[in-house]
Structures are given as C-alpha cells and as structure tokens.
C-alpha cells in the first residue's frame, strides 16, 4: 500500500505535540500532509478516528487516510497514523503574533467559520470537547478548520 515511491516521511518535519499526540509533516502520494500519531490506547485512538471519519465540512480538518503498521522511523507503541490535510498554522499563532501564513478574513468571518464548523459537528451528534485557539487551524487559503476530535 505505501512503498517508498509513493510515501515519503521526514522525521525532521516536526510540527507540534499535544498531550496525547505528535504531529509531523510529510508527503502522502504527491500531497504534502500532516501525520498525527496518537499516543493513547488503541481503543481511544479508534474512537477519534471513527468520529473524524464521519465529518466532511469545509471548516473541519480533513482526514485523508489512516495508516497501520507503517514504520515512520519513530519509536512508538502503536503504529497507527492519521493522515490529515496540512494547514499553515493555528489561531493560537495569530493571537501570539507568530503566524506567518496567508491573509486572514475579517474577525467576523473567522468567528462565522468557527461557528459553522461547530454547528456542523453538532449536527452530526458529536461535541468537540476541546475548543481552544490551538485546535482551530488555518488552511493554506486562510479557511478556519476545527481539529483534534479526541474524546
């Protein structure tokens, strides 16, 4: 499924980490993406993946694939990775004045996009339990994206 010709990963492209995950950038096929390695028990990892697979909205970070048993040159207990669309940064970086990405829409439009994403998530009978600036990502075209649907 993932040979070296179609799948590239570089450990040097560390993007960040949360309490329960590490995120790296790399390539999947020819697309630049983010790889999220969740460091929870397999059942909790499955819950996040199951919920995220149900979501398809312009203001929700897109889950592109799930990779199993792929050696990404990391020492990890569980070799399961979520392949996600790569974003330019987060709302937290905007607040901290360290964001170096595309121009952002007006504050009103930013709030509208966040609310639209939350409304969609709620319409799917899910609740995002960790809304914070770090979990609101900004796509390469300036679109707000809700991220991190762990429970």
From TrEMBL:
Species of the source: Daphnia pulex
Binding site for ATP: 36
GO biological process: endoplasmic reticulum unfolded protein response
Protein keywords: ATP-binding, Kinase, Nucleotide-binding, Serine/threonine-protein kinase, Transferase
Protein name per the record: Protein kinase domain-containing protein
Sequence ranges assigned to domain Protein kinase in this UniProt record: 9-151
Domain of life from the UniProt record: Eukaryota
Pfam families: Pkinase
PROSITE patterns to which the protein is assigned, alphabetical: PROTEIN_KINASE_ATP (PS00107), PROTEIN_KINASE_DOM (PS50011), PROTEIN_KINASE_ST (PS00108)
CDD domains given in the database record: PKc
MF GO annotations: ATP binding; protein serine/threonine kinase activity; RNA endonuclease activity
Similarity remark: Belongs to the protein kinase superfamily.
